[in-house]
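Hey,
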Amino acid sequence: MRQQVNNCLEMDKRKDWPVFAESRLLFNRCNLPSWVLGSLSFQRHPQALQLDGVQEIHADLFRRLQTLPQAEQRMQQFMDYMVVYFALQSPEQAGFHAGIRIRRNKADYLRMLRGWLFDADSREGAVLKGWVASRFGLLPRYHAGPLADQEGESYRHYLQMQSAGLYNTHALEGQLDLVFGYCQYELAQRHPQQTHLCLYRGINKIGSHDIVERLQGNRLWVLLNNLNSFTSNRERAEEFGDAVLQVEVPISKIFFFNSLLPGILKGEEEYMVIGGMYEVQQLRHPL
């Protein structure tokens, strides 16, 4: 896997690739270190991202998916597998019983995704941002407030929400690992030979974002939160802010998109994108 790191950096000789040390962890559970996958070089020259053990532990699922030609069939296979493997409809098999004071067996991957779609600063959003930090080594920058000060009230509140969201759940982070693995598999089927998707994000007050450098032609280097909502529809993005960012997002950094589970989650062509450093184009609203 280290050869992947060397290849990524060899493709980009300019010294603008590292992600800031204060925005990442030294260790993660991915095949690339955080300082590479969070870099501008990775955006320009992306590589496949794999979480430790997911392909090996769930090899049977991915073998089954390869035999199914239709996306709807693969979705049903994935959801059936999640129910059986994580005992989502049999909480007693996962150790839950009537005597448990706080029952949170329904806090599964679907609830986390729905919670994010409703409010990225919710308890479910905190769980997802914490999962990104532990798996990819990229720290959250914002959750109902800036998180740069790890001694501050906003950071303490974020940790409380994350802990509450994980409390007394069943392998919730393992469920999210498999969501990412399935998402990457499905994207490879739908976009073969493609490395990026052009996505949009509506924002307010661009100056409040972590702008690293301003370039010509309304282009910016921006340090994004470790998990972000984007859309493939520019007009939809314009409804959510006074400015729109257009970004070439590496497919390997997409955690989830709404049509991955059609009919299960409602949304407006939303994509959940892992953060880090990005070069973006700031677009003006049409008059």
